[in-house]
Amino acid sequence: MSAPATTGSAGTAAPATTPAEPRRIIPLAFRAAGVGLPLLSVGAAVGFSANNDPNAFVTYAVTMTAAATAAVWGLWGLVDRRLLRASETLSREAGLIAHGTADGKTGARIPLARYGDLAPVAKAVNELSDKLAAARRDTARTVAESTAKAEEQKTRLAAVLRDLHEGVLVCNLKHQILLYNQTALDILHLAGDLGLGRSLLHFVVAEPVIHTLERLTLRVREGRHVNHEHGTTAQFVGATTDGHILLAGRMSAILQDPPEGSDALPTITGYVITLSDATSDLAALGQRDALLREATEGFCAPIANLRAVLETLDDTPELGPEERAAFQAALMESSNTLSERLARVTNAYRSVVTGSWPMSDIHSTNLINLIRHRVGPEAQYGVTLTGLPQWVHGDSYSLVILFGYLIEYVYALTGVPAYDLSVEPGDSWVYLDITWRGPSVPSGIVDSWLDHPLPDALGGLTVGDVLQHHKSTMWSEPVKGPGAEGELLSRLRVPLPPALKPPSAHTAARGGARPEFFDFNLLHQPLATSELGRTPLDQLHYVVFDTETTGLSPSTGDEIIQIAAVRVVGGRILTGETFNTLVNPKRSIPPESIPFHGITDAMVADKPTIDKVLPQFRGFVSGAVLIAHNAAFDLKFLKMKEKASGVRFDSPVLDTMLLSRMLLGEGGDHTLDGIAERLGIEVVDRHTALGDSLVTAAVFLRMVEMLKERDVRTLDDAIRGANIIVELAARERAF
Predict the structure, then answer these.
(1) Which of 424, 577, 616, 665 makes the best surface tag, with the fewest CB within 10 Å?
(2) CA 470 to mean position of chain CA atoms
């Protein structure tokens, strides 16, 4: 190739010096053949005819055939040499130019004179080469600038990370280390590098890290990170894989926002962990635990001895009255002093332990779901989430390990294959209960579990340690099952501290109560047929449901925007068996209705429409008696969509608003909040379709017992009583 052309003073490429345009050989050859063959044909014809040769025609034909063949082969050879071979060579040179470098200000050159008739193509390749060289120079300059900026930012980040007193590690969802600082190496007591791309779980115990990531993933998936006190961060306690170093950690999720305009939630693409060496702190805490345990439990034996001496004195008649009285007074004073000291030290011990252990507010549903996940589907026993959710305060990781361990030991002791996990609020505690059908665990066995070390727990924590961190204890007791004639069950109860800042405590109610809605044709039902109507209320299978809508008038265009339901079986609210979905109403949601349900147009934009949702909902409620508060309102919306969705809702329906009127009379507050308050039902997540379904379910179960006192025992009894209320309301409105 020729050398690059020189450039002008402005830096742009000067026109290359090129030879005069080469002669076009192939066009000339075709013209010559086109003119020569006719001339040859005419000349030969004249010449052969003048010779009077009898074979002149044959000679003429042979001569012209030979001439044409020679012309074709000559033209083909010329095309092959001057076009085909040259074009192949030109393509190879163009490929070399495409893969070459562009250090100069112009691209590599192809000599035009070499390619004759293909010179215009070669010239175009040279022009493309110049543009390619310019593009490469621009790319190289941009890369250099970006690299410089990245290096500058990297240097700044490295300086920041180097000055941090906490170890920092950035990982992807496969737990591969993408970035770390020197402090992390020092905290983990590692010499050399961690190694980018290596798994964090090679150096740190996996369980706490995986558990914390599961918590954050669940929080983001449900959208709770937006209003959560800690956003996308969570604390945990971990350890190095060799167990020599205990770590206090904090995980922050790295979020990737959805595409612009999408209503999808962000996704977690990785996480940042900050670590500090808590070995000395937790070791000191462990030593303090042991010391205080000795100080507290060590008092028990002396006190027992003192009381034994007192009993002995009572059994010794030979002592005089005055001696006996003085002896007894001194011993009693010592005993009381020891007892008071024991109480003070115990309270101080629990306060110190609880205040030193990292804890946070936890939603009970999330906690129990993590326990169920730990138990796993391969276990020989099942765990069912029941009851109403509550907020508790604690260390979720140690609680998950604790309850997984307790269920396993109860199963090993009793062989019962099914357990309910539920929470129940108290005056100053929230009780987390493991309930089963079978004998309770003797108190001596429960007490013996306190010293058992928990598998996968950090620092060799025992059952008693975890309970003491939460100022808690545990006991097993028999309890009566749901209903007046409920069977005798057993439960293992663990009190937990209530949440310090539950969301419901600082979130105002969105809107007022929905107005009472009467549609007498919907509310007045025929009695159930066959065995269903005669079935006692506490033996029926129920689905409690609620809807949220764009407004209060389905006949004028208002639509369903959310349906939620929960299953109730055997007097138990099966919190783990729910139906909950948003619905695209195919119309805008009025701004004035948003304060009532908190659902916006963006939230339902990509959700299924009602004709897709109702068949799924019908499948969920199949075979169940429906329960709702102010049921006529929800039924009106469902009935108007039956034809469009191709399903029918013909199950019996009980309305807690009508049942409230049956039990309490027409006076009083028959709103859901009013009834729940009178019944002492404390719940979270109100003013959502699922939250309202859970409240209604709890209200209905309380009403079943009250209805029995009114001799309303079967489904037919309840429908008959509700029909009377409907007729009375219709007459009142008629007047």
Answers:
(1) 665
(2) 27
Q: Single out the residue of 239, 235, 234, 201 nearest to residue 218, CA to CA.
A: 234
Q: Residue 681 contacts by C-beta under 8 Å, 6 or more apart in sequence?
A: 388, 695, 698, 699, 702
Q: Has 230 been annotated as catalytic?
A: no
User: CA separation (Å) from 507 to 251, 435, 502, 503, 677?
Assistant: 26, 32, 9, 6, 18
Q: In what order do the strands lie in the sheet with 560-569?
A: 572-582, 560-569, 541-549, 625-628, 653-655
Identify the pLDDT of residue 164. 60
Burial environment of residue 686 by CB neighbours within 10 A (0 to 12, 13 to 18, 19 or more): middle
Task: Return all residues near 423 (Cβ < 8 A) that are at least 6 apart.
Answer: 364, 368, 387, 388, 389, 390, 392, 430, 431, 432, 433
Taking CB atoms within 8 Å and a gap of at least 24, the contacts of 641-650 are: 641/560, 641/610, 641/611, 641/614, 642/614, 644/610, 644/611, 645/610, 645/611, 645/612, 645/613, 645/614, 645/615, 645/618, 646/611, 646/615, 647/614, 647/615, 647/618, 648/618, 649/618, 649/621
Query: Which range (238-247, 345-354, 404-413, 721-730) has the least confidence?
Result: 345-354
For residues 358-370, give the mean pLDDT.
84
Over residues 155-168, the pLDDT tens digits come to 666 665 555 667 88
C-alpha angle 360/363/364, rounded to 5°? 115
Rounded CA-CA distance 355/411 in Å is 33
Local confidence band at 509 (pLDDT 50, 70, 90 cut-offs) = very low
Give the integer Cα–Cα distance in Å for 719 and 669. Answer: 22
Tokens read off for 350:
């629990």
Burial class (CB in 10 A: 0-12, 13-18, 19+), 604: buried
Tokens of 432: 């987390």
Q: Is the pLDDT of residue 52 over 90?
A: no
Q: Is the pLDDT of residue 480 over 50?
A: yes
Q: What angle do CA 65, 68, 70 make, to 5 degrees?
A: 105
Query: Which residue in 582, 549, 551, 540 sits closest to 564, CA to CA?
Result: 582
Amino acid making up residue 33: A
- Distance set, CA 129 to CA 13, 26, 531, 578 (Å): 12, 27, 89, 66
DSSP 675-690: HHHHTT---SS-SSHH
Q: Which residue has the tokens 């306690």?
A: 237
Does the pTM exceed 0.70? no
Tokens linked to 624: 């169940």
Amino acid at 271: Y
Residues 6+ away with beta carbon under 8 Å from 613: 560, 563, 581, 583, 645
User: For helices 56-79 and 25-50, what crossing angle results, to 10°?
Assistant: 170
